[in-house]
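User: Can you fold this complex?
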Amino acid sequence: MSHEIKKSGRILRAPENFVDDKLAEEITTHGLNAERRGFLRKSFLAASAAMASGTALAQAAASSFDGDPNILNLPEHSTTLGKPVRTNPYGLPSKFESNLVRRESPGLTRVPQASVAFTPLQSLFGIITPSGLHFERHHQGWYDIDPSKHRFMINGMVKKPKVYTMDDLMRMPSVSRIHFLECGANTAMEWGNVAVPSVQYSHGMLSCSEFTGVPLSILLDECGFDKKNAKVVLAEGGDGSGMTRTIPIDRALDDVIVAWGMNGEMLRPENGYPLRLVAPGLQGVSWVKWLRRIEVGDKPYATKDEAVHYMDAMPDGTFRQYTSIQECKSVITTPSSGQVLLEKGFYNITGVAWSGRGKIKRVDVSVDGGRNWRTARLETPVLSKCLTRFNIDWVWDGSPVILQSRAIDETGYVQPKINELRAVRGSKSIYHNNAIQSWKVAESGEVSNVQVY
Amino acid sequence: MSHEIKKSGRILRAPENFVDDKLAEEITTHGLNAERRGFLRKSFLAASAAMASGTALAQAAASSFDGDPNILNLPEHSTTLGKPVRTNPYGLPSKFESNLVRRESPGLTRVPQASVAFTPLQSLFGIITPSGLHFERHHQGWYDIDPSKHRFMINGMVKKPKVYTMDDLMRMPSVSRIHFLECGANTAMEWGNVAVPSVQYSHGMLSCSEFTGVPLSILLDECGFDKKNAKVVLAEGGDGSGMTRTIPIDRALDDVIVAWGMNGEMLRPENGYPLRLVAPGLQGVSWVKWLRRIEVGDKPYATKDEAVHYMDAMPDGTFRQYTSIQECKSVITTPSSGQVLLEKGFYNITGVAWSGRGKIKRVDVSVDGGRNWRTARLETPVLSKCLTRFNIDWVWDGSPVILQSRAIDETGYVQPKINELRAVRGSKSIYHNNAIQSWKVAESGEVSNVQVY
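Assistant: Here's the predicted assembly.
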């Protein structure tokens, strides 16, 4: 047994010329077993004054070994006193993860206040997006608004228009739900056959968080909205862009939340602190940030961001408006473009799937460009209008392959191929590209973004 | 309608002496309706060169008003260009939330490397704990270990002992699951009738995250563990304290994960980066951080942290060992000790419930010290060995009251009163206090920590 341990690694490795084979096996096999530790400590008491268990063992062993002493040296973190609790009262990622940040696509917009910073999907796990990596899409920059001064108004076709403070809202009945949030322009470049270099840039206007707030339906009831004639609400942000979006009343009364909480704490300033609309299943622009007003109306408002932007350019030259539901979609996040497989063998293919119409029912994965499909494992919980993480085993034989994922939601809708989508939608659009994504793995192991028809 | 708007708040408020009542109503009622905005812009074109919608409106309105100009002035964030995207490549909380941090109880331990920093439960929402606020409990400080140098070994009663790199592990089949993590000594002070000042200190060694990693069962299978004779595994940390814990083999093969991911990203250094054990339902000390080794054995190892610490002192002078499952428990987080209710009226009572034995089935709330109970709403999803958020409506009439919550898990176990728990366990214990917590609301609205028998 000790031979195999010796072959396979570095920690507590027992070299062949160890002075005492029996002891070497004791150490490697039984490690810090308390009974045997007593024995070892007696035998080697002189070897070390430090009696911290692991340390003592290693030093004891090292002192009996006349080869390279580093072989048995434990790393510094196993032999020293670490940093105190609360070194960071609000914790931060490891210094070794400093490359894992939101990234901006240079030149994508004219000013960085009306730009995008993408979520690094290629390095994330599960379904929760860390709030520090939640994508940003602003129309006139972001703000850190004093919550004690923030006000939220409901007016329009209501009996009693009201203005709420944050304190007012946070005393009300609240709900907490996990939902994805995707910009309507996510994966926009793929319409035009521009293969952006990584899944961070191709799909990174996508995040998923647990949101907490008061259901909009409760607030609308409290204000006595006109149940007979109300058809829509208008959500208005407090930012300089005056972001405004029309939302159908049925949707507003269903699962829309006036939210202050994101992943357990208050919203981050870039994500609308102290108040944003959570409109599950709808494109991100409808999740109005720095929310200051909801107006109840009887027809769509045709505001700038729905009359000029966020429309689907169709092949016949017309524009589709108010297509704000994010259809069923998925993407493989590892392996993905920009990553390199270092060798043949086993890999876990993983990715996320989501649908603005409900739960994900199934995700299929192909490693041959869509000819054959296998069904992936879905991680629990599978929630409505929420990212679903999928995983599937794969053994790479070293030949070039095309990796694809295809999601199916509970309505039976199947994520389309890019040519199927183009047949209906043309290629002039910017918005609502939910096509199957293809990653090519070359013989070298390099993964790149390709379009497969 | 305009009168009510005037009364109720500040935003877009239309004063009574507004030059044009009709226009005032237009602005307050219809706000940024695009059609009407066109009209307004024409009427007030001279008033403002900035045509950003909200800004233009407010400035236009303000210019026609001869009272206090501040009444109609929009806040700076509605009239200026904000900060660019990626001001923080890794985002941070608002400056107004700087008080929401982990806190250490001074004098709790002799050195801050072997201390606790508590999670501020009183200000959190939902079930996900932001990783920056995850509680800390170290035995010899924390480390930021280079993952490329970290190794993980499996040995003991296995056919093929193996050492894994992080790359090796992260290629393997992975799972993502949301679980709570509670220190066995959480709520320890309440055994001795010491009413600590807030739920952060009384219950804040509790967090809940989505963890991602490879099931330990897969690794044990790969190493060919001795299915006939194996009874336990020993988990060993790479820290200077040589943290080691025995875990029954059935549990290890069930839902234990060798994890690198927490809330979507790599573990934080304080929480075991790059690798920790996730042992759902077990006390925190078994979730060994900076995990470097699993040894398979045939009897409990009786290591320092199970033979000397983390034992339950019983009334008869004996000690219970290996009682590592965290029993069903709950606590109201708002209102809670240290908070103040500013006035009578409606409040949302909210808190969390959890059980190391499965799902939460029901949470009851009493506002009269346990005489009457009402069943709270559970937020979805309700997951096994996971925090469950509960909410319940409450109208405070201004009289003194005692608030309590009582959780019941899917096994039928009911969270005990403190006197029921003391009848069995005495009061010498430090560990495993899962009693019902009582908060007293005084006539002044001040909430304090009390014990109710």
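Residues 53-63 of chain B form the longest helix (11 residues). DSSP finds ten helices and 24 strands in chain B.
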